[in-house]
Amino acid sequence: MTQEAGQPAQAKMPRQIPYIIANEGCERFSFYGMRNILTPFLITSLLLSMPEQLRAGMAKEIFHTFVIGVYFFPLLGGWIADRFFGKYNTVFWLSLVYCAGHACLAIFENNRNGFFTGLFLIALGSGGIKPLVASFVGDQFDQSNRSLAQKVFDGFYWIINFGSFFASLLMPIFLKQFGASVAFGIPGLLMLIATIVFWSGRSKYVYVPLAPKDPHSFLNVVRTALSSAAPGQGRNGFYVAVLGLVLAGGSLFLIPQIGIVAALCLALVMVLGCGGMGSWMQLERARGAHPDEAVDGVRAVLRVLVVFALVTPFWSLFDQKASTWVLQADLMTKPSWFQSAQMQALNPMLVMLLIPFNNLVLFPLLKRIGIELTALRRMGLGIAFSGLAWIVVGFMQLAIDHGDALAITWQILPYALLTFGEVLVSATGLEFAYSQAPLAMKGVIMSFWNLSVTIGNLWVLLANSSVKSEAVTAQIKTTGISVTAFQMFFFAGFALLAALLFALYARSYKMQNNYRTS
After folding, report:
1. Which residues cross the membrane (predicted)?
2. I need a surface site. Which of 16, 216, 239, 441 has the fewest CB within 10 A?
């Protein structure tokens, strides 16, 4: 491998990295331990008072609402860290909130209000620290050793899946054998260990100082661009941004149909989408009032947000492996000792195998034959592979609907396709998000990366709400397939279209290098 210009001959790995990696492994065990048994617990315990035919749909709705919260609160965590307390302090204190949430799940297994309070605290704690831990990893590197950063981000993602694998394998067994208190209590204990490990490395970390209040910040530049009038020019960008506010207000009228969480997320999408588009249209008007580098930085961020938006369909497919795919697995033949939720352990196991295989075998082999898989090419291919996975799942559902007895082992193929797509999208996306973020916006831009997961789960809630309409279900019946199978093929097409648009956009995207200097 040729040495990059400006890189020392032997870059050194920061000695504090093991503390962050160990913290992440324990935290991910705690999160996936409770997340992967949430749907079966809701169906078999907390929602027993509901009619049986409604439980699966309600469990799926609660699950994706929870995931929306987990990936929405990174906005709050990133803002607090970047403006007030710094990454380390924000991660530490929100980790304690996270522990309290796990305690609520273990204590209030038969109390809806207490249990949902626990889900809220976990969403707040887990979501709040999510962008900061990955960004904190990046802070430990500078220009002298940034060549090692991608390897650490890959290792970071590997340890996430190491924790997820054992959690997915063991927690469904503990739920069945020992009950919800133990099954939810063990992840809580792991989260407490994660917090202690993170705290133990406090004297070794690199602490990047908070950026001073900047009159040329992202929001200030955007505000200037939207509010400025230019002689002889209209204010189309401003009107587009106002349209976003109007549409956001209109989204709130959909609360009775789609629920308050989905409506609020849809309102956020309208504000971000129209506000970003309007800012792009009038951004040049901010020059003069703000330095050129500030205006160029805002344009760079807006370009990154387009990439994030095109990734949202991937997350709408990926997160349904813990809801839709588990419900499908319930309809498949399997040994009596095997729980449907345990199938999810296949995903992290494959990730742990695919990351070293890709880096050591596949990518070098492709490079030798002249195929360079850049970060954006990997992400686009990952979205496409997720669509292929859902085509396979859709055909399996058709077989089940026609009365065929399918073994649960058939799900191995779609899990393999989806996991390959995940490695290409998510592991690459972590480093991409950090490297493209301006120095003053590391936490916030990582929050927007996580927000793409929230929006992906919003698409799921909207799709589920639409099929509650008798007119929609009647139209689906004319196709001759079940609603479930129709939704599977719909999401597959959604992802493949997104992959095509992603590929077209990536052709004109200019990569940035925003690592700090040594």
Report:
1. 62-81, 88-108, 114-134, 155-175, 181-199, 261-280, 300-318, 345-366, 378-400, 412-434, 446-465, 485-506
2. 239
Task: Evaluate if residue 348 carries a pLDDT over 60.
Answer: yes
Residue 169 in tokens: 């394998």
Distance CA 427, CA 288 (A): 39
- The H or E element containing residue 18 is helix 17-35
pLDDT in tens, 112-171: 899 999 999 999 999 888 778 877 877 887 766 666 776 777 777 777 778 888 888 899
Residue 117 tokens read as: 């309070």
495 and 313 in contact (C-beta within 8 Å)?
yes
What residue type is assigned to position 364 of the chain?
P
In sequence order, the β-bridge partners of residue 290 are 287
Nearest to 192 by CA among 29, 4, 381, 374: 29
> Strands (DSSP E) along 277-395, which ranges?
none
Burial of 484 (0-12, 13-18, 19+ CB in 10 A): buried
Count other C-beta atoms under 10 Å from residue 215's C-beta.
10
pLDDT higher than 50, residue 1? no
Which burial class, exposed, middle or buried, applies to 506 when counting CB atoms under 10 A from its CB (0-12, 13-18, 19+)?
A: middle
The span from the CA of 353 to the CA of 336, in Å, is 28
Dihedral of CA atoms 392, 397, 402, 405 in degrees, nearest 10, equals 90
Residue pointed to by tokens 């279900």: 473
Please give the average per-residue pLDDT across 272-283, as a whole number: 93
